[in-house]
Design brief:
The complex is a heterodimer.
Chain A (H helix, E strand, L loop, with lengths): L1 H40 L9 H10 L1 H35 L1 H16 L2 H11 L3 H26 L3 H9 L4 H39 L8 H10 L3 H30 L4 H4 L4
Helix pairs in contact in A: 2-10, 3-4, 3-6, 3-8, 3-9, 5-6, 5-8, 6-8, 8-9, 8-10, 9-10
Chain B lengths: L4 E9 L5 E10 L4 E5 L6 H9 L6 E6 L11 E4 L11 H11 L4 H14 L15 H14 L4 E5 L7 H18 L2 E6 L2 H7 L2 E6 L4 E7 L8 H4 L2 H21 L1
Parallel strand pairs in B: 3-7, 3-8, 5-6, 6-7
Antiparallel strand pairs in B: 1-2, 1-4, 8-9
Helix pairs in contact in B: 2-3, 2-4, 3-4, 6-8
The chains are: A mainly alpha, B alpha/beta.
Amino acid sequence: MGRAAQEPSAGNLSAGRAAVVLPVLVFVAAVLGWEALVRIAQIPHYILPAPSLILTTLWENFGSLAHSWWFTIKITFGALLLSAVLGVALAALFAMSPWIERSLFPFAVVLQVTPIVAIAPLILIYVDSTTAALLICAWIVAFFPVLSNTAIGLRSADPNLRDLFTMYRATRWQRLRLLLAPSALPYFIAGLKVAGGLSLIGAVVAEFTAGAAGRETGLASRILEASFRTEVPKMFAALLLVSFTGIAIFLLFNLLARRLLGRWHESETGPGR
Amino acid sequence: MDAAIAIERMGKRFANATQALADVSLTVQAGEFVAILGPSGCGKSTLLRAVAGLEAPTEGGIRLAEQAHEPGMPPTSFVFQEPTLMPWATVFENVWLPLRLAGRSRGQAREQVHALLRGVGLDGFDAAYPRELSGGMKMRVSIARALASGPWLLLMDEPFAALDEITRNRLNDDLLLWWQARGLTALFVTHSVFEAVYLSRRIVVMSARPGRVVAELTVDEPYPRSDEFRTSQRYALMCSRVSNALRAGEQEAG
């Protein structure tokens, strides 16, 4: 009896552990396989460097790479912050007036659908500061999900709750703060999760387009610079930092979502009662 | 006439030309418990929403008498078919809402909200979130919120339709206690004959296409009512009379 009752939970536990252990095992195996392949086939490091060489290169160049890394992080989070603030502000404006929405939404769509690589050279011409130009490019890539998600979220409040607020004569501000904003929060967070990844992509792509100009340079410039000199291990080292940043952003927003929605929203609580 | 609610020849036609209600007249005295019974689509919810001021009649009118209620608060409260709680807010915050919208701080409202929660049998649940409660408990929170604003008129739109029979019977009993203790006037929309007979002093039977009143029946049974009434011959007889009126109305409508 006791054993039979324990079995399912033991099964769940091992399934939960497998969800962590399996990807780690596969990752470690892939890295080891890569290392072995490079050593056995004697692939030259300017074609494919071994993981061990990439790590040593990263370690040796960390001082200069860290500077560029910090620059890319600044652009990424700056663009993300702008996306969040302007996306929410614009969505709130849309929620207040359908006319504003109808007038401005096409512009947002145009910005969204035009590839950033095509706009970036123009922005670099019009904006003096390279840093500001990069920020604008990354923002253009990242802000749309925040805007469209928040706009949908602000419209998604329960109609009965809306009626309730009307009956209790809620002010505009009370309605926004106590009803519309909490209703939109899960949508906003979902938009922010997408925007987090996109702002990193935007920051890197814009810098590629800008070239290694300017005093301050980010990781993209370092990748370009290393590729001109065929320093392939260094390219991989910089790439590693870019990936690491992306993973960190992903985890950060998952944590944020759990903290903000964990107690009430289905997306974080899972199938409940 | 000192009617609490006077609905006179009211009609409601929606923008898409659907005639939801036609020529509805109804008078409700203060302190009465009136059930509005009808098949789905007969406009009974529209009628209730019109009394709440959420829909404007296209013909005729509705007059609500001035009755004593909490100053600065709306005179009516509405209980929806769903509990309609804010999922991001605790039980306390949901019941606090009407007071909060009227400018009462958490501290100022604390005692009153706790008293309301005690009153609906949810003492100690103030920090729980709606998703942690059962359907019946959610509805209790919803009713506590409706009572928080101290209304004289309680409008309920099939509030217990989604609950199981045992929970519904218990909520029916409790609802009658709250209604009597607070001297409320109640308009209760339902499609359950049994519920209408058990709860109300008067039953307004409606028919669909267009929604109109086809019969009014009085339930001659003193309050408080109990399980004894629910299992009595009088109750069965009343239910069959109401069912007949409902069927006659439907046949008439074709």
